[in-house]
Amino acid sequence: MRKKPDTTMGRDEVLAHLTRAARFDVRRLFDASGNLKPPQDWDDDTAAAIAGLDFQDQRGVKRKDEHDEGATETKQVRSLQTIDRLKALELLGKAHGVFDASEAEEPAGEGSLAQLLAQAAEQNGGLNGLVRR
Question: Phi and psi (nearest 5°) for 110?
Fold first, then answer.
């Protein structure tokens, strides 16, 4: 008799996945030279943060010169879609009671969590640099 696969996810597992998504750093996708690492070189957290990956071959003709008769060149164009870090942060905040009712009703003021999350969405580094020390 074949065992059914487990299709349920408990609260702790959901929160663990949201935490991984919220902590995703896009810089882990690239090597020191700025080239995209091959997927087999991504760590588990980085791989989990990828929502989609597309590869497209584009063909073009190289310039002709006296030694070449216009050889065809193929480039591979890669497109990555990552998870929505801001949405993961929002869901984690709700799960942990970070947002209270009074903050939800008031407009986002200077230094409010809503404003900080909006700033994080606009900056490449996410929450980096927003923490006041």
Answer: -55, 125
- Residue range of the domain that includes 106: 99-133
Tell me, yes or no, whether 87 lies in a domain.
yes
- How far is the C-alpha of 82 from the C-alpha of 45, rounded, in Å? 12
What is the pLDDT, as a whole number, of residue 132? 44
What are the tens digits of pLDDT across the range 84-94?
Answer: 888 989 999 88
Q: How confident is the model at residue 43 (pLDDT cuts 50, 70, 90)?
A: very high
Q: Rounded to whole angstroms, how far apart are CA atoms 22 and 116?
A: 14
Q: In total, how many domains does the chain have? A: 2
3-class state of residue 53 by DSSP: strand
- Whether this model's pTM surpasses 0.70: no
Residue 44's Cβ-side half-sphere holds a number of Cα atoms within 13 Å equal to 3
Whole-angstrom distance, CA of residue 95 vs CA of residue 39: 31
Do 87 and 30 share a structural domain?
Answer: yes
